[in-house]
Structures are given as structure tokens and as C-alpha cells.
Amino acid sequence: MGEYTGRIEIARPPAEVFGFLADLRNMPRYLPTVTHVGPRGRHADHDDIAVEGRAQDHAYRDEGWLKAEPEQRRMRWGSHTQDGYQGSIVVTEAAGGAAVELRLGIDPKPEVAARLQRDHGSVENGMRLALARTLGAIKACCEDAEGVDNARDSDDLPDSRPFGSSATLNPDI
Predict the structure, then answer these.
(1) What gap in Å lies between CA 117 and CA 151, rounded to an integer?
(2) What are the backbone angles phi and psi of residue 18, rounded to the nearest 5°?
(3) How far from each other are the two terminal CA atoms of the chain, in whole angstroms?
(4) Is residue 135 domain-resident?
(5) Domain containing residue 94
(6) Cα–Cα nearest to 134, from 35, 34, 58
(7) 173 domain residue, yes or no
(8) Is the Cβ–Cβ distance between 32 and 160 less than 8 Å?
(9) Could you tell me if 132 and 158 are in contact, meaning their C-beta atoms sit under 8 angstroms apart?
(10) Torsions phi, psi of 65, nearest 5?
(11) What domain count does the chain have?
(12) Bias regions of kind Basic and acidic residues — which residues (predicted)?
């Protein structure tokens, strides 16, 4: 399984950044393939969620789990349908506010790996760029409400669909 990590600093208080990320309604603001995220049920140690969106010109819907741990300012998630798919985000204090560390564990499907290889030179580079794009969108959302639209449309930032798809439990990865 591929393990991918990215980090960014955000000029906002850590509790505020974590609050933004822990609110499922905000996910479509920083993951451009996501159109809707909603709760599906609560368990003792996690919440089940459903994710809907559009990637590579087709709609998707999948279900997984999410566990928010406010005391640690950490969220962890995974898929009910993709063995081994998992991720986490941790918000810590940094000199100018907060630091966000994003971790993703996934083996992209062969067709996605081939596209990442073709478009970015390697799967690892494509995933690294996708993580950077997603973290940039989170930063834009937290620091400047108008910035998220600019982050999504910027030509100098890599396409986040590989990460956005996998992070949202897209069955095509």
C-alpha cells in the first residue's frame, strides 16, 4: 500500500482549523470532487458516512467511516468497500497558527496509477501533488473564504482529483 503525507501551515488558531475540518459540510469546499457528505449512522468508536461526488466525468457514491477526536485535533477515516484505504488529518500548533498534516494510505487502481504515471511522471509524484493541492485548498478556506475558488481554478496547482477521489472513498481508485 502506498503511504502519502503532506503538511501545511495555516495562519489561524488550531482549534478553529480543526473545527472547520471536522464539520462534514465543509468537505466539498476543499475536495473538488465531493458534492455531498452526510452521516449514515453512529457507532461507539466512529461515525458511518456517505460521500457523493463527480470524478473523471462520472458520478460516484460510497460509504465509509470517520472518527473525529477533538481532544487530539485528529480525524481518521476509511472505506467500507476498499480494503486498506485509510487516512488521517492532525492539526497542531505552529509558530503562526496551525499546522495540518494529512496522511493517506491507498493503492490506486491500475487505471488511476497509469494516469498518475502519465500525467505526473510517477504515482508518488501525482499523489504528492494532489495532497499539496488539497492542503492548499484547506489553507485557502481557513485563511480567506474567497481563496478556495482561486485554489481550485489555479493553473499552477496540480489536479487534486486523485486525492479528492480517494479521500472521499471513490470506488474508482
Answers:
(1) 23
(2) -65, -40
(3) 12
(4) yes
(5) 2-167
(6) 34
(7) no
(8) yes
(9) yes
(10) -130, 155
(11) 1
(12) 149-159
